[in-house]
Amino acid sequence: MDSNDDHNQSERCFLDWMKLQEVDLGELRQALTLKEKNESLLVQIVEKVFQHFQDYVDKRAQLAHNYVSLYFAPSWNSSLENSMLWLAGCRPSSFIRLLYALCGSEVNSHLTEYIEGRKRGDLGDLSSNQLNMVNNLQSKTVKQEEKLTSKLASLQEDLADEPISIIAQRTQTQITGELNEEVERALKDQDEGMMRVMKEADNLRLNTLKELLFGILTPVQAVEYLAASKKLHLCMHEWGKTRDQMHGGRSNY
Amino acid sequence: MDSNDDHNQSERCFLDWMKLQEVDLGELRQALTLKEKNESLLVQIVEKVFQHFQDYVDKRAQLAHNYVSLYFAPSWNSSLENSMLWLAGCRPSSFIRLLYALCGSEVNSHLTEYIEGRKRGDLGDLSSNQLNMVNNLQSKTVKQEEKLTSKLASLQEDLADEPISIIAQRTQTQITGELNEEVERALKDQDEGMMRVMKEADNLRLNTLKELLFGILTPVQAVEYLAASKKLHLCMHEWGKTRDQMHGGRSNY
């Protein structure tokens, strides 16, 4: 692969993922409108939509091997999305915050029902057993997030340490940005660390979502949750683009 | 101010800062070559260079009020710099890591210098009292960094919570990115939180550097340290640009 394609391929991978999420959202919504809900059909949809996320994460990880730095503040994201980024993606704990928000708003009937014909949202029906499981998942996830945050911190600090900081002192008076073998090797080691921590973060994202969808929620709740989560992501992306356009920034979309 | 200028003005502010750092680096280096070092002249230079950093931080904070999101992954940074970003800038603890790296490499080169009979570098001469102060500053800084990291985490999670996540559910089926009053208000509240945490991070950066330069290092050590720190920043920026160009990304420079 021509290395100049790294950026374009990575951007294409993201844009394809956003489009696929729109399609998935349509299908999830349609499933929720069915009067007679066939449980095995709902499970199939949830599995398919989760698989799409897994595929995206896998493809992204493959592409990131060429140039992982791109993923820590992608130019294809809006500034709003990038300001919310944690280790090249969303915070796994925010999956749980979204669930709490949806439960709360369903229970309190604050949510205007966006699907006709339903008397009550299914996410308002979480049992105390389910809520316990969600609480446990939340504290487990937050702890793992904190560990990964520390790993990133230590990688970031490493850049100010040997060998990179010392190589910088030895470069010529005129700073040209030329990458000699020594710099390239040091930055490559750094990349490998970033790649490892990004993969761990991806695993935490995948496992947290998997646990919610297949370990805690009922199939109809899982469909409802996924629809809400796709909607939030798609809205944030579009809102972020609009705000960037208003403020004159980011020419990449 | 035309809101479309937000991005351009912020980018200009950063580019001016990078140019000023180059000029400052020249002056710091020149001071280090003087055979007879006039202490009050060195103090003046350190004060001036520190003031330039303070001025940059102030100007940036003023501009960020218009659109703070821009600063959490600036399009004028290279991907390498953005992957190292912590709360819209560098980690304050990395100032200390750089000092340790410089001491270490100076200490190592002392052996060579001793053998060759050359004069020793000044950062290798840190007294045990100074090293104690650096250690204390490091643990204090890391603790404050962790607190701010948690504040950011909680702001990031808030986006998946009410009101934003629920507003997203109420938007039309066709997601357009239109910002109604409710969305704008919710995102503005979010911006204010991000602005507060960015200011706290800026203060920590400024105070950590101030403590190093004026509380711990001697004037000549401070000049040497600042020269090394400017060099590292300028090299990282240029190396990052070269790497981005190699991988076909980021059209903003």
Largest interface: A-B, 88 and 85 residues
The secondary structure category of chain A is mainly alpha
What is the H-and-E element order of chain A? HHHHHHHH
Q: State which percent range the strand residues of chain A make up.
A: under 5%
Report the principal-axis shape of chain A: elongated
What is the CA-based Rg of chain A, rounded?
21 Å
Number of helical regions of chain A: 8
**What is the arithmetic mean of pLDDT of chain A?**
89
Residue windows where pLDDT falls under 50 for at least 5 positions of chain A: 114-120
Largest sheet of chain A: none
Number of strands of chain A: 0
Oligomer state of the chains in this structure: homodimer
Question: Which bin fits the share of residues in helices of chain A?
Answer: over 70%
Distance between the termini of chain A: 24 Å
InterPro entries (chains A, B): DEAD/DEAH_box_helicase_dom, Helicase_ATP-bd, Helicase_C-like, Meiotic_Crossover_Helicase, P-loop_NTPase, Sec63-dom, WH-like_DNA-bd_sf, WH_MER3
Protein name (chains A, B): DNA 3'-5' helicase
Pfam family, one (chains A, B): WHD_SNRNP200
EC number (chains A, B): 5.6.2.4
What does this structure look like?
The structure is a homodimer of 253-residue chains. By secondary structure, chain A is an all-alpha fold. Chain A is 70% helix and 0% strand. Chain A has 8 helices and no strands. Chain A has helices spanning 5-33, 39-64, 79-83, 92-107, 128-158, 164-170, 181-216, 219-246. In chain A, helix 2 packs antiparallel against helix 7 (181-216), helix 4 (92-107) runs parallel beside helix 7 (181-216) and helix 5 (128-158) packs antiparallel against helix 7. The two termini of chain A are 24 Å apart. The model of chain A is unreliable at 114-120 (pLDDT under 50). Chains A and B meet through helix 1, helix 3, helix 4, helix 5 and helix 6 of A and helix 1, helix 3, helix 4, helix 5 and helix 6 of B.
